Amino acid sequence: MSDRSASSARSRMDTPRTGRRFRLSFDPEAAGRVTEDIARFLGTGRYLLIQTVIVAAWIALNVFAVRLRWDPYPFILLNLAFSTQAAYAAPLILLAQNRQENRDRVALEEDRSRAAQTKADTEFLARELAAVRIAVGEVATRDYLRRELDDLRELLAAHLDEPSPDAGEGTATRHP
């Protein structure tokens, strides 16, 4: 194939490209973790201390070091740096808050699901316990059987103590 036919094949819409192009891959989860780490760092005392030292050094150098003055008194460049920092910090903090809100929502849904399952389990166990109580009420207990046996013994004893109609008068027959 000549160079002309190869270039015309490349320009045709129905021919797929064979060359590999560089593609930028973006992992939103990894980017979210990085922005959360930055937002967490922006809220620490360490960051405030570092920023205070940098600002103090910036002002001191621009006020006292005549040769190093790159940002004279109204410190316009320092204000620009603060504005840029605020322009990036606010979205990073909002992104971190949104991710935390999503995690909280998922945790809340899991807690609700777990609470509903716990409630259903508790209601089931309460019904089972009620059924066991009813069943136990219908089952002969040891005390019930003891009372019944005592009543039968007294009945037998009374029956054995009374005279038999076949026996003579005044004699009581005992059956073994």
TrEMBL record:
Q: Which InterPro entries does this entry report, sorted A to Z?
A: DUF1003
TM helices/strands, residue ranges: 47-70, 76-96
Q: Which domain of life is it from?
A: Bacteria
List UniProt keywords, sorted A-Z. Answer: Membrane, Transmembrane, Transmembrane helix
- What is the protein named? DUF1003 domain-containing protein
